[in-house]
Amino acid sequence: MNIPLAKIPILNKRVRFPVSPHIPGGLATPADLCRIAAVAEKYGGTLKIAGGNIVIIGLTLADGEAAMNELGMRPESFLSNTIRGVTMCAGKPDCPRAQQDSTALGLALDEEFFDQQTPGKLRIGVSGCPNCCAEVFVKDIGLFGTAAGFTVILGGSSGRQAQVGSIAAGNVPAEETAALIRRIVDYYRNNAKNKERLGQTINRLGLDHLVSQAIPSQYRLSK
Ligand code: SF4
Question: Is 125 in the pocket of ligand 1 (CB under 6 A)?
């Protein structure tokens, strides 16, 4: 049963509702920004820009739900067991260092994977070159571009139990990355304990276990 949160009196009295529309890649048009600003103004909220997100803060629960409906945009996911919006660097054509089109790939991955259910929180990041501006070594699944394709890093986290991910695959063509991530996410669903991050699953079972089950041999770094 789906009861609007604003109908629950105790929540409505105490909770402030951060309105955070999902903006794939953080790429917004001026019209998008004007619409978000107008809704924030209408409900007396303040805008907070955090990473690729714009959040309207300071609203009551009832106003927050009304504002979200009025925006007509999907909300960001704050649940602990979902795939978050994909982070991507500027990449081609905006960055002269880009070796792969991180924006096109990041948007395609966001379209497919955002908000899917997983055992724990899962973050994906895509960088266009080894400079890794999208902080892909601290994403559960990170990719950076090289002239030969994408290198895949698994098990990173910037959260409470921060850790640097491990390079698990290389030379993956852009058009094959979604299929590879499907295999990794399937592995995660089949092997993780409830609320375990991918890096914790890897710590428990070993990277070799994941690689043997989820990474096709042509992308393994030691074959
Ligand atoms: S990771 Fe590379 S391509 Fe992406 S913004 Fe940084 S320098 Fe540019």
Answer: no
Cβ(105) – ligand 1 distance below 6 Å? no
Cα 101 to Cα 148: distance, rounded to the nearest angstrom = 13
Question: 176 C-alpha vs ligand 1 centroid, how far in Å?
Answer: 21
136 Cβ inside 6 Å of ligand 1: no
pTM equals 0.91
C-alpha span between 54 and 70 (Å, rounded) = 16
Q: Which CATH class is domain 4-71?
A: alpha beta
Q: Residue ranges of the domains in the chain?
A: 4-71, 87-219
Q: Is the CB of 95 under 6 A from ligand 1?
A: yes
pLDDT digits (tens, 9 = 90+) for 159-203: 888 999 999 999 999 999 999 999 999 999 999 999 999 999 999
Distance from the alpha carbon of residue 53 to the mean position of ligand 1, in angstroms: 19
Tell me: domain 87-219, CATH 3.30.413.10, correct? yes
Q: What do you get for the CA distance between the two ends of the chain, in Å?
A: 50
Residue 161 CB neighbours (<10 A): 10
| pLDDT single digits (tens) 30-77 | 999 999 999 999 999 999 988 778 999 999 888 998 999 999 999 888
- Half-sphere exposure for 127 (CA within 13 Å, toward CB): 20
Handedness of CA 24, 27, 30, 34 (dihedral sign): positive
pLDDT at 93: 82
